[in-house]
């Protein structure tokens, strides 16, 4: 018998949730998860490469503003999806609802694996930076990284309220750390800093350089969709999801623009372009020999909120897939604290496996293709669900639809093409995985159907 989306939906309807997610989250959590999920080591490194591509102070800063505007356009559209399909699980939920279970399988699995790989990579980075700060830990970075995964997995197991409190606390610490760095750049910068900032040479900037710079900037803004992994756990989705998403992105834009203005103030565009690590170069100029320790401390503080966010997000993807019959039914098990237990443990185990095998960087590189594909599916889902769910309550509608959504969709397609051109090897691997995904999908659905008929 042919595999159809209808048959999958009928199968999914027979998969009950074992326990339930708790509707306890609000705007403060949403802003914290977005800021925590987005702001990591990228903003401390990427400005150097962007300055090398755009050796003009105005163009450099404009690129960071433009990246924020693109993220805001994305929020304008995807917040509507979170309101009309208030299910936890991230962009998998929208792909499955709009385009069927095969699209959902592709988006769900790629999102889960790449998020777990990022969880793993961020944890091992904490181990590396801790070893540099505390010499006794220098030979134990793997043990520290695994310990971080275990710690945050245990904390999330206690329940979503614990996750909420930890996320808000670690994100507040991150925001304060970045605020301190920005203030230091303007108050402690050497006298030559502002002058150097004005001395960048004027030269023609090609379209290719602009495209590459914008790709780097937009990748650095990625993470603004973090609230959508928790939609059914929000107390008032129609009001709080849009507020959290707009508030979170506004906070990120403010931090990113101020950090880059501060780096330019200290180093100037030429100095920024010459450095391999923007924050390190700025800290060296400000604090001399203590700069390295200060930056590593900042990185650890910044990574903690990201690790907590990944530990929260990963299990909810598989939880949603389990409810739809695309993952074994035990994945729908939720404990009294509102945490999907088995999928949390599975995510933590895979994160440790990535660390032990050292494969997380390869997974993340391949997943970059799917990262763009996920957004393309989500923006397209706004158009599709406007047609297929015209009467669904929409307390929030995408601002500027269809123009803003269409622009975001075209931008996503352009970046998908750019990902194939600039990273052909990993993109070819991703396309190969797409080619073999349908047989896996068919086997998954047949197994789900067989399990439902025998139960």
Salient structural properties:
455 residues; mainly alpha; Amino acid/polyamine transporter I; 17 helices; 0% strand; globular; disordered N terminus
Helices and strands, in order, run as: HHHHHHHHHHHHHHHHH
Please indicate the count of domains: 1
How big a fraction of the residues is strand?
under 5%
Number of helices: 17
The CATH architecture designation is Up-down Bundle
Dominant shape: globular
Write down the CATH class: Mainly Alpha
Describe the sheet with the most strands.
Answer: none
Helix content: over 70%
Total E-strand runs: 0
CATH superfamily: Amino acid/polyamine transporter I
Q: Which secondary-structure class do the elements indicate?
A: mainly alpha
CATH names the topology as Amino acid/polyamine transporter I
Determine the mean pLDDT.
Answer: 89
Give the low-pLDDT segments: 1-14, 192-200
Radius of gyration based on Cα positions: 22 Å
């Amino acid at each position: 018998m042919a595999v159809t989306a209808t048959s999958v939906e009928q199968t999914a309807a027979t998969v009950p949730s074992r326990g339930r997610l708790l509707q306890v989250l609000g705007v403060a959590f949403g802003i914290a998860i977005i800021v925590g999920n987005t702001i990591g080591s990228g903003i401390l490194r990427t400005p150097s490469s962007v300055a090398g591509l755009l050796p003009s102070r105005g163009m450099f800063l404009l690129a960071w503003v433009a990246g924020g505007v693109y993220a805001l356009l994305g929020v304008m559209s995807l917040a509507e999806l979170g309101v009309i399909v208030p299910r936890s699980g991230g962009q998998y939920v929208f792909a499955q609802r709009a385009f069927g279970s095969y699209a959902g399988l592709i988006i769900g699995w790629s999102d889960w694996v790449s998020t777990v790989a990022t969880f793993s990579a961020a944890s091992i980075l904490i181990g590396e930076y801790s070893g540099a700060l505390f010499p006794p830990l220098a030979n134990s970075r793997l043990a520290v990284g695994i310990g971080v995964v275990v710690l945050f997995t245990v904390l999330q197991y206690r329940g979503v309220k614990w996750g909420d409190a930890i996320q808000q606390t670690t994100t507040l610490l991150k925001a304060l750390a970045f605020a301190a760095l920005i203030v230091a750049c303007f108050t402690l910068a050497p006298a030559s800093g502002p002058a150097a900032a004005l001395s960048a040479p004027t030269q023609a900037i090609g379209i290719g350089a602009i495209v590459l710079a914008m790709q780097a900037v937009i990748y650095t803004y990625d993470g603004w969709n973090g609230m959508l992994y928790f939609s059914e756990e929000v107390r008032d989705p129609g009001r709080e999801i849009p507020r959290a998403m707009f508030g979170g992105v506004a906070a990120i834009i403010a931090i990113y623009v101020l950090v880059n203005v501060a780096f330019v103030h200290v180093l100037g565009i030429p100095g920024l372009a010459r450095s391999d690590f923007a924050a390190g170069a700025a800290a060296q100029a400000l604090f001399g020999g203590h700069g390295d320790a200060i930056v590593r401390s900042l990185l650890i503080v910044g990574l903690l909120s990201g690790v907590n966010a990944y530990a929260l997000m990963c299990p909810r993807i598989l939880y949603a897939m389990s409810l739809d019959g695309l993952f074994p039914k035990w994945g729908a098990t939720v404990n009294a604290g509102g945490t999907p237990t088995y999928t949390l443990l599975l995510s933590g185990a895979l994160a440790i496996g990535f660390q032990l095998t050292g494969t997380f960087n390869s997974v993340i590189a391949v997943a970059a293709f799917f990262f763009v594909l996920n957004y393309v599916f989500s923006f397209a889902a706004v158009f599709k669900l406007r047609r297929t769910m015209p009467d669904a309550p929409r307390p929030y509608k995408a601002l500027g639809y269809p123009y803003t959504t269409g622009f975001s969709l075209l931008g996503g397609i352009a970046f998908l093409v750019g990902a194939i051109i600039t990273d052909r090897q990993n993109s070819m691997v991703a396309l190969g995985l797409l080619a073999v995904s349908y047989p896996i999908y068919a086997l998954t659905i047949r197994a789900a159907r067989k399990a439902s008929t025998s139960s």
